[in-house]
Design brief:
The structure holds two protein chains of two kinds.
Chain A (H helix, E strand, L loop, with lengths): L38 E8 L9 E3 L2 E8 L14 H12 L9 E14 L5 E16 L1
Antiparallel strand pairs in A: 1-3, 2-4, 4-5
Chain B lengths: L5 E3 L5 E3 L3 H14 L20 H21 L19 H4 L2 E13 L8 E6 L8 E12 L10 E11 L7 E11 L4 E6 L1 H9 L7 E7 L4 E2 L18 E8 L9
Antiparallel strand pairs in B: 1-2, 3-4, 3-11, 4-9, 5-8, 5-11, 6-7, 6-9, 9-10
The chains are: A mainly beta, B alpha+beta.
Amino acid sequence: AAKPPRRRQPKKTNDLPHPNKLPGIFDDVHAADGRQVCRRHELYVSFQDLGWLDWVIAPQGYSAYYCEGECAFPLDSCMNATNHAILQSLVHLMKPEAVPKACCAPTKLSATSVLYYDSNNNVILKKHRNMVVKSCGCH
Amino acid sequence: GTGPRRRFHAAGFLQRRLSGGERREVQREILAVLGLPGRPRPRTPAASRAPAAAAPLFMLELYRAVAGEEEEEEEVSRPVLTGFSTQSPQPGSAVSRADTVVSLVNMVEQDRDIFSPRPYWKEFRFDLTQVPAGESVTAAEFRIYKARGVTRHPNNTLHVSIYEIAAEHSNRESDLFLLDVQDLRAGTEGWLVFDVTAASNHWLVDRKYNLGLRLYVETDDGHSIDPGSAGLLGRRGPRSKQPFMVTFFRASPSPARVSR
């Protein structure tokens, strides 16, 4: 006869995210020691707040992102790290005054477009190829 | 006069309120990213531009198509369930390749109409002085709306040709350079698009070559027709159907950035 199944312990909900968890999807991703790992943050630049809607036709604002967070050794919490960043972080541990930590920076950028009037009432559509941060990583 | 004020944001970031000078500096930086020397000051305020003229309406459509294309690029890893959007520019099309698209308002229009000796024509002129620096023209289009006109024979064929005015003379006809021709039924209604890339390239080489475009309409048997009578709308037409020019630019492949 099969043994009755053992009751599983209810999963703790207040655990800190595992340091190996991929950043960039969840808010407030922290490594085990509480520091924030390198990840993408949301940034919205409102053309309305800048008072530019008299000449910018579209979009109303620029929906972009920025990269912020720590690149501390080991970099396993940030999967999007270059090999050099891993070595630099290691050397930083040994010589913190001489070598800085690796930088949290964009690894992939995409295009965005702006439609606006010039001073002659001509309409200009400008495409900016490497403008919107798609992903961040340690460099 | 006490320097920039600082305050702590709820998230713990140190926020600094910008002084007037710093704010202007930040705005100048953003304008530099857009490739603008300063903040544009459109001659007419935004409110009086409504109802929208033909060029802004066309450019807004183009913007929506390009923005849709950018979103599709972002979703490249996801399976496409809804099919390809018909509004998106075709891959390899002029708009898809362009870094900058400029619509130019017709500055001057001259007619040789039914009150003048034949052949009849319509002339248009565009100001290309504010083109983006360091970019080359990949394509240019002249767009003009064809209404039904006053023709009694809507099935007759009309030949609409567009010329670049190469030189003007006081004692004889101007020198013309044929750019594009379209054959259409007299009863046709809608936008006609002519390729004027060669002319825009000449105009960008030297401003003195910018003498405008001239449009002729002829019947099958070579009779000149007044473009206005044929239904081709000019500056006196409704705002949403006035002629304009669209120029497509591509940035130089050089990765060099302008120092600021």
